Amino acid sequence: MPRSFSELVQKCLQNQNQSFILLLRRYIHGNHVYRISLQKEGEDGEWSNLSWALTVNQGGYRTEIALSEAGAKPSAYALLHLVRASTNLGLIPFGQQLHTYILQSGFGSNVFVSTALLNFYMRIDSLKDAHNVFVEMPEPSVESWNSLISGYAHSGQFRAALGLFLQLEKSDICPDAFSFTAALAASAKLSLLQLGESIHSKILKLGLEWSVVVANSLLDMYGKCGHVKEAIRVFDNIIDKDIISWNSMISACARNRKLEQAFGYFRNMPEPDTISYNELINGTAQFGNIEDAIRILSSMPSPNSSSWNAIITGYVNRDRSWEALDLFTRMQAKDIEMDQFTFASILSGIAGLAALKWGVLIHCCTIKYGLDKSIVVGSALVDMYSKCGQVKNAEMLFQSLPRKNLVTWNAMISGFAHNGNFTEVIKLFKQMKTEKDLKPDGITFLNVLLACSHNQVPLQVAIQYFESMIEEYGIEPTAEHCCSMIRLMGQQGEVWRAERMIYELGFGSCGLVWRALLGACGACGACGDLKVAEVAAGKVIELEGHNEFVYVIMSNMYACYGKWGDVCVVRKMMRDSGVRKGAGCSWIEVENVIPASSMVE
Predict the structure, then answer these.
(1) Which is nearest to 126 in space by CA: 174, 87, 159, 89?
(2) Rounded distance, CA 56 to CA 52, Å?
(3) Which of 67, 333, 455, 499 has its CA 20 to 30 A from that of 532?
(4) What is the spatial distance between Cα 413 and Cα 490, in angstroms, rounded to a whole number?
(5) Radius of gyration of the chain (CA)
(6) In degrees, to the nearest 5, what angle opens at C-alpha 497 toward C-alphas 492 and 499?
(7) What is the pTM of this model?
(8) Could you read off the pLDDT of 479-510 as tens digits, one per residue?
(9) 339 pairs with which residues across the strands?
């Protein structure tokens, strides 16, 4: 009997004896080594079992020598299963070695082997390597396309996923049901209703609307795009509705404030499950009476962490964070399993309260649960410490996180911006742009523009950032971006330029930007452009009605210009309209209590 595993493999390969093969299989099983189960008989199939077992025990390099000495040559079939096994077990170095071997041995052109490699890189979140494998495939199959599309979608790069889907449509390969479901999911995430409707029409042309999986994806897309009537039409046409169909319909109604309809579908549902209850709780907590959501929670058969999370989030979104904390403590007392979203939600509420002591306590809980290093919780902790003024702690946490996503980077950049560390904002932004598979979004640029306005950055540099956001990254400017640019231009005394920009960007009917322009004029004092201020004031009153802000700014500006008659007119208008200047208000946390204090200016 051979004494070593290597000798056993060598003997088996040389003799091709069935008894040795059976012995080897028992050896693999006894040593808890992952073994690929192949139904195919013959040398190729056995090679897959032998090579994998030897690799696990001795490493890829020695395996290659042993197989070479034995005269065994791997087939595409064997390599396919080796790559799949590497993917399932997360053996990254071995998978990368296999990739090298596949390229050297000429199997890179095999569509099945290449697709398996593509899935391997997707599993380890290496989108760039996955894309490179795809590009090198001479004739990718529809499965190859689907793998890459779904990979981009799962990583949150929905536009890239949709771009690939559109390329697939232009190719000679016909999309299948899986292609359409992935594209619909990406459209739903981006709320691209027109694109979703276009995909729906193609599904109808190909006769795939009868697939319950495709129909459920359509339901989800229409629900997330706020098109409830069309979702109902799709639902009514499904012949064999499954539980996902019912839950998708409940979700579509609940998330679009159609709570009565959501409850109607819930009552007609054959067998509601936990997800069904959770959708009702989520919708009610967001748009209904939150006490009703608590009653649903109390009556459901088996609530889980998502059930509690929905109500905690509802409290936080309604600025009732103390009640969210109360519910969190009840959840903990009942030994309900908490997940990363539980902690992220409650940390968001604590950040809004700037309640540092509670934040530290929750941080300790995340460490106890082993969740402090997760991206979701880590990002929430960075945000919480930043909003509590502890930017150094936030930075330490940020640096310690093993993985960061766009939310993490934005939390840290925002933390620096709101704590006055504007030089660090620009520095971190430049560092972020060098990160692999990461692109700044509108929130990132909003903080960069904020830093520019506080850091006396030349206007032209700020304009370059703004134009880069639009042209290089394809980000549509929002009213908030426009307001930031208005403040920057106001600092340079170029409010006339800001007025022109408002019309160029199509924000002429947005009261927020006109208030920002009026504020920029007022900040310039006697140097402000009175004509632009009068235009802005008129626009604010036209769009938002009488506002104390308008009268105060205009009164101050007229005073700066020595137009005392106009000052009297403005103050009389205030009295006649019943508008009064409000008192300033501030608050701090003292022993977990927040006493409000006001100061009349």
Answers:
(1) 87
(2) 6
(3) 455
(4) 24
(5) 31
(6) 120
(7) 0.73
(8) 999 999 999 998 888 888 999 999 999 999 99
(9) none
